[in-house]
Automatic annotation (TrEMBL), chain A:
<dbReference type="Pfam" id="PF01507">
    <property type="entry name" value="PAPS_reduct"/>
</dbReference>
<protein>
    <recommendedName>
        <fullName>Sulfate adenylyltransferase subunit 2</fullName>
        <ecNumber>2.7.7.4</ecNumber>
    </recommendedName>
</protein>
<dbReference type="InterPro" id="IPR011784">
    <property type="entry name" value="SO4_adenylTrfase_ssu"/>
</dbReference>
<dbReference type="InterPro" id="IPR050128">
    <property type="entry name" value="Sulfate_adenylyltrnsfr_sub2"/>
</dbReference>
<dbReference type="GO" id="GO:0000103">
    <property type="term" value="P:sulfate assimilation"/>
</dbReference>
<feature type="domain" description="Phosphoadenosine phosphosulphate reductase">
    <location>
        <begin position="34"/>
        <end position="257"/>
    </location>
</feature>
<keyword id="KW-0547">Nucleotide-binding</keyword>
<keyword id="KW-0548">Nucleotidyltransferase</keyword>
<comment type="similarity">
    <text>Belongs to the PAPS reductase family. CysD subfamily.</text>
</comment>
TrEMBL record, chain B:
<protein>
    <recommendedName>
        <fullName>sulfate adenylyltransferase</fullName>
        <ecNumber>2.7.7.4</ecNumber>
    </recommendedName>
</protein>
<dbReference type="InterPro" id="IPR050100">
    <property type="entry name" value="TRAFAC_GTPase_members"/>
</dbReference>
<dbReference type="InterPro" id="IPR054696">
    <property type="entry name" value="GTP-eEF1A_C"/>
</dbReference>
<dbReference type="GO" id="GO:0003924">
    <property type="term" value="F:GTPase activity"/>
</dbReference>
<keyword id="KW-0067">ATP-binding</keyword>
<keyword id="KW-0548">Nucleotidyltransferase</keyword>
<feature type="domain" description="Tr-type G">
    <location>
        <begin position="25"/>
        <end position="254"/>
    </location>
</feature>
<dbReference type="InterPro" id="IPR000795">
    <property type="entry name" value="T_Tr_GTP-bd_dom"/>
</dbReference>
<dbReference type="InterPro" id="IPR011779">
    <property type="entry name" value="SO4_adenylTrfase_lsu"/>
</dbReference>
């Protein structure tokens, strides 16, 4: 038994956790076939932990799905596999390479793998008949995300219509769907980057090693430090050197930059984040720099 | 390089930072309302800027856009107007949620549009708010919109209200102007249910009384806006007396290790639950005792709002989603005839005989509109009894008959067990927000 709370107050992290667990249970109770989209990054790991808590001691009553870009960090995939094994959940992999081979999406050599995720994901949702897909998106990440509901309705093309969203009142979520439609569910909408890290610290959650400071050969591109890898060949004039870096987000290895940092524990990362003056996406995501509405436009097409 | 990290934590040691962010903070949700030019975006921008919640890359993007549009100032509204169409039109269409934190508290701002045609979005933002922040322009005084916003916040039982009298710099920081608006609003507020009201003179643009105390208004002795937001006491707003536990999900592992485990997952909506308590399960009326309360892998000694826990009962009574656990002598009465205030949220009007889906706590069913008693004019508070329909963004008192009994309380007693949504069964869209007056 834990200590009695004399003033019946919950810390803000406990409040956020309670809200997220409520959402997980609501979806599991009302949707026919939910799935948890899992990238292996910190947000989806926190999501998995929350799902674990929501149904304990029962197992998580839905599978998890990863969109394999073929360009994911190997360390992230290793962490993914350990979580899957520990929780005993079913893993569905939607591979972009397979989607290209099957003609589901077209690799014209110019489109980023990040964009090819959209068609691959939508196809996997349709093929598996998923009616709800949990995502680890947070409203503090981006201004278009800040507008999105916890239950984000998607039509039969997977599209988000930001001008015609369902009102979302109290904690009464409306999960009604028509044939072929699905819902994207964001249980950690109200969490900030700092909340996610605080929770990782509090829960002692295992996350991929690339979040911690390590030596890596990197080169500069577009103001960001990119990983030297055959998957992302350097262009003329770019030179790699070894630096002490860490990642703030986990994504496609060709688009995800790292930051110079000596933070090697979760506590040190929290200290760093607490005073950081650049957002995680601004610091490390090439895919959001294409235009002011890059995220909104991708989301309208079906991105998470 | 665009990626810069300051490592200067001069005021707090690393351990303190971690302690602060993981332990001490509590949460305040507030909804902002105000007319188009009341300076709401500027105020939110300033709160975010001064609490370091705006990052350099975001600010740079906004500065660049402002410049390319030919503005001679940085338009902070570009930070909050997240949608392409909002930026095109320069107006806020939908609720946006913003976050910032001080050492004591985390804040969630529901930034709601002020236009009358977006009343439903304001209702959306206010439904979860602990505090409502209404902005008025000191030059204009109270407008129809500020009154309407106060009415909506009061209808939604947002327990704390702040009226921020903005643009004080444009009225020479006049105490007289402030007093006049103060008086006008407090006399209007007597007609409403506003348990806690604070009226603060500010200049969002210049920062007077927002985070730091204004030197221009020595006659004002109240708190700054930020100080008030940080210290307003919200813990006592919850009902800790009447036990309400809507059953959300039945946890049945059916595994070797937990073969006989049967728990009821849910979020506490009221009261304090403890092992050993005598409880009743509604609507069946079966009684039992709480055998234990689980929070993940721990057993806890009590559960209270808004905790999400799993409750186990001593007896093998039949309990499923949609049921409610309450105390034996303090349970809500199951009702199929509901008297409620409804905010209507769609173009097609609400009409008598109309049938809709209803979701109340974890219970869903169908509802039929028996009668529209009156339409409330949210500007004058006049009750129009001749109208038998509610149009988009209108609020009125409605009688419903439901297919399943609702285990409800008056909304004034409990915002969770007193609220419901109405869903159009053909389109699946949420078309109404309901606040229960009484069930019978």
């Amino acid at each position: 038994m834990t200590e009695t709370h004399a003033d019946y107050r919950l810390s803000q992290l406990d409040q956020l956790e309670a809200e997220s667990i409520h959402i997980f249970r609501e979806v599991a109770a009302e949707f026919e076939k939910p799935v948890l989209m899992f990238s292996g990054g910190k947000d989806s790991i926190v999501m998995l932990r929350l799902a674990e808590k929501a149904f304990y001691p029962a197992k998580i009553p839905f599978p998890i799905m990863q969109v394999d870009t073929g360009l994911d960090f190997p360390e992230v995939m290793e962490t993914r596999d350990r979580w899957v094994e520990r929780l005993g959940v079913q893993l569905v992999v939607a591979s972009i390479d397979d989607a290209i081979a099957q003609g589901v999406v077209v690799d014209d050599g110019k489109t980023s793998r990040n964009r090819l995720q959209i068609g691959t994901l939508l196809n996997a949702i349709e093929e598996n008949g998923f009616t709800a897909a949990f995502g680890g998106g947070r409203r503090d990440e981006e201004k278009a995300r800040a507008k999105e509901r916890v239950y984000s309705h998607r039509d039969e093309f997977g599209q988000w219509d930001p001008k015609n969203q369902r009102p979302e009142l109290w904690s009464l979520y409306n999960g009604r769907l028509h044939e072929g439609e699905h819902m994207r569910i964001f249980p950690i909408s109200n969490w900030t980057e700092l909340d996610v890290w605080s929770y990782i610290a509090r829960e002692g959650i295992e996350i991929p090693s690339i979040y911690f400071a390590h030596q890596r050969r990197v080169f500069e591109r577009g103001g960001m430090l990119m990983t030297e890898t055959p998957l992302n060949p350097m262009k003329q004039g770019e030179t790699a050197e070894e630096r002490t870096v860490r990642f703030r987000t986990c994504g496609d290895i060709t688009l995800t930059g790292c930051v110079e940092s000596g933070a090697s524990t979760v506590e040190e990362i929290i200290e760093e984040i607490a005073v950081a003056r650049v957002t995680e996406r601004g610091a490390t995501r090439g895919d959001d720099k294409f235009s002011e509405a890059a995220m909104e436009d991708r989301k309208k097409e079906g991105y998470f | 390089m665009a990626t810069e990290h300051t490592t200067d934590t001069s005021t707090e040691s690393g351990a303190d930072v971690v302690e602060t962010v993981t332990q001490r903070m509590d949460l305040l949700r507030f909804a902002t309302a105000g007319s188009v030019d009341d300076g709401k975006s500027t105020l939110i921008g300033r709160l975010l800027l001064d609490s370091k919640a705006i990052f350099e890359d975001q600010l740079e993007a906004v500065e660049a856009t402002s410049q390319s549009k030919g503005y001679d100032y940085t338009d902070l509204a570009l930070l909050t107007d997240g949608l392409r169409s909002e930026r095109e039109q320069g107006i806020t269409i939908d609720v946006a949620y913003r976050y910032f934190a001080t050492p004591n508290r985390k804040f969630i701002i529901a930034d709601t549009p002020g236009h009358v045609q977006y009343t439903r979005n304001m209702v959306t933002g206010a439904s979860t708010a602990d505090l409502g922040l209404v902005l008025v322009d000191a030059r204009q005084g109270l407008t129809e919109q500020s009154r309407r916003h106060a009415v909506i916040l009061s209808l939604l039982r947002v327990p704390h209200l702040v009226l921020a009298v903005n643009k004080m710099d444009l009225v020479d920081f006049s105490q007289e102007v402030f007093e006049r608006i103060h008086q006008e609003f407090t006399s209007f507020a007597t007609k409403l249910s506003i348990p806690d009201l604070e009226i603060i003179p500010i200049s969002a643009l210049q920062g007077d009384n927002v985070v730091t105390r204004s030197e221009h208004m020595p006659w004002y002795s109240g708190p700054t806006l930020m100080h008030h937001l940080e210290h307003v006491h919200v813990a006592s707003d919850r009902d800790l007396v009447d036990v309400r536990f809507p059953v959300q999900y039945v946890v049945r592992p059916k595994s070797d290790a937990h073969h006989d485990y049967r728990g009821y997952g849910g979020q506490v909506a009221g009261g304090v639950l403890k092992p050993g308590d005598d409880v009743v399960v509604l609507p069946s009326g079966m009684t039992s005792k709480i055998a234990g309360i689980d929070l993940f892998d721990r057993e806890i000694s009590e559960a209270y709002p808004p905790m999400s826990v799993t409750v186990r009962l001593e007896d093998d009574v039949d309990v499923s989603r949609g049921d409610m656990i309450a105390r034996v002598n303090n349970a809500p009465k199951p009702s199929q005839d509901i008297d409620a205030m409804i905010c209507w949220m769609t173009n097609e009007p609400l009409r008598p005989r109309q049938k809709l889906a209803i979701k109340h706590t974890t219970r869903t069913g169908r509802a039929m509109v028996k009668d529209v008693q009156y339409r409330l004019d949210v500007n004058s508070l006049h009750r129009d009894q001749d109208t038998k329909e509610l149009g988009l963004n209108e609020i009125g008192r409605v009688q419903l008959r439901t297919t399943v009994p609702l285990l409800c309380d008056p909304y004034s007693k409990n915002r969770t067990t007193g609220s419901f949504i109405l869903i159009d069964e053909a389109t699946g869209v949420t078309v109404g927000a309901g606040m229960i007056n009484s069930g019978s």
